[in-house]
Amino acid sequence: MKRDIKSYFELFLISLRLGLTSFGGPVAHLGYFHEEYVRKRKWMDEKGYADLVALAQFLPGPASSQVGIGIGVIRAGVLGGFISFLGFTLPSALALIIFALVIQGTGLVEAGWINGLKIVAVVVVAHAIIGMGKKLTPDLQRKTIALVALVVTLVWQSAFTQVTVIIIAAIIGVMMFQKVKHEQNERMNFPISRRFALGSIGLFIALLIFLPIVNELTSSKWIALFDQFYRSGALVFGGGHVVLPLLQQEFVATGWLTEQQFLTGYGAAQAVPGPLFTFAAYIGAVVGGWQGGLLGIVAIFLPAFLLIFAALPFWNSLRQNPKMKGALMGVNAAVVGILISAFYQPIFTSSIKSPIDFALAAILFTLLVYYKMAPWIIVLLGAVGGFLIGL
């Protein structure tokens, strides 16, 4: 495909629109991506998208952002990955930097319209899970894997539990599904060399090892910030909400932020679209102004870039392997269960606190799923509904 300015600009505009309208966290983002890139534009087939989601679940970091980066790479090379990420991340990052600098601590995060946006998140996530569940758990065996993953991740809530469930699901998938007759996957175009991939994984490991050492040997605030954000982005599995305990440990327990500053920023991060990892922009801006906000974004997302660049060139050969195909079937099923678990806690429990909240969610769900209203209309109606409930 000829990569010209027009194709890059198209990719940026599409990802920017998603970044402005994608409320609801990583599960909802995957639903928005599926609707835009698979169903509407047909840049990928269903199987390729499901496999890319599974790959992102295997890797540490923000899964939805890594899927977006991967789609950008498929469409327009390494630069396309950066452009896709920039469009999707820029709106929420800028909003949170501005919030930290201008209106921090005003009580805005308790406003009724923000609670309405949380209810919108419930609706969007529920819709996304239903769609993914139909595709990824079509038979009883995979429904059972999803159920077990749901129960285990609800009862034992930790990042380690999610990683363990995914690994066990992959092993079960190899045993149960490697002899299943598979469709031949459409070969996906990843214009990244294996040498570049090996360099990416080498840099990922080197930074993880040497940044703490350099931090200990210097007194630079900026190196300390970069180290803390990079380590948080490199060691988290399971999406945005899982990174919160790491960030709290790195910045509240060590005295960089107060508990109130942290919770205020978290409330604001819930109210903006795009990846929750952009919470790093708020923390960085509180600690070091707008420069700290930009540094936080670069540092916390850098591991996601390095890992997805390292994995993509080997992905075609891996996904054609019968054992890997079986493993992916198991992982895809487990991901559905994990997503339902994440939907209940914290999305549902932190958003639906009264019968009238549930009634608003039911109305918005009906308008989205059955009346086919555009997501941005649902967001607007949710904000208005939340404001009226608050009155």
TrEMBL record:
A Pfam family annotated for this UniProt entry: Chromate_transp
Membrane topology classification: Multi-pass membrane protein
Q: Which residues cross the membrane?
A: 12-33, 82-103, 115-133, 145-175, 196-214, 229-247, 268-288, 294-315, 327-347, 359-389
Tell me the keywords, alphabetical order.
Answer: Cell membrane, Membrane, Transmembrane, Transmembrane helix
Superkingdom of this protein's organism: Bacteria
**Taking the first listed entry, what is the main subcellular location of this protein, grouped into a coarse class?**
membrane
Q: Which InterPro entries match?
A: Chr_Tranpt_l_chain, Chromate_transpt
Answer whether the UniProt record assigns the keyword Zinc to this protein.
no
Compartments, as annotated in UniProt? Cell membrane
Q: Quote the NCBIfam families the UniProt record gives.
A: 2A51
The text of the family note is:
Belongs to the chromate ion transporter (CHR) (TC 2.A.51) family.
Specify the protein name: Chromate transporter
